[in-house]
Amino acid sequence: MEVKGKIVKFLDVQKGQGSNGEWQKQEFVIETLDSKYPKNICLNVWGADKVENLTKYNKVDDVVTCSIEIESREFNGKYYTNVGAWMVKKDGVQDVVPNEQNTAGTDDLPF
């Protein structure tokens, strides 16, 4: 699924130690743009590299499209829902395509 919105707020980075080593989680809030009544959604990214990229390339008020996964878990008869963003792309920014041109030689010889 995808959701588009404006970044409203970044929450504090959460860090911890688990059985698989250290982990990091960054939560952020977006305001939806596609309805008459905008809604706030709290999303999160997991992993040091995703946390770094999220805050490095995105700022408050940036419009982003997030590819998300929604999951609910039960604990003691209550359900808790998590909205994980596995890709956050700033709108208006195109993907970089590597230049296929051969730049090894700089001389203009025809052979």
Helix share of residues? under 10%
Q: Enumerate the spans where pLDDT stays under 50 for 5 or more consecutive residues.
A: 96-103
At the fourth level of CATH, the homologous superfamily is Nucleic acid-binding proteins
Percent of residues in beta strands: over 45%
Class based on secondary structure composition and strand pairing:
mainly beta
Architecture per CATH nomenclature, i.e. the level-2 architecture: Beta Barrel
Order of helices and strands: EEEEHEE
Rounded to an integer, what's the Rg over CA atoms? 20 Å
Q: Give the count of structural domains.
A: 1
Indicate the CATH class.
Mainly Beta
What is the CA–CA distance across the termini?
A: 52 Å
The CATH topology is given as OB fold (Dihydrolipoamide Acetyltransferase, E2P)
Number of strands: 6
Number of DSSP helical runs: 1
Q: What sort of overall outline do the alpha carbons produce when their principal axes are compared? A: globular
| Average pLDDT score | 86
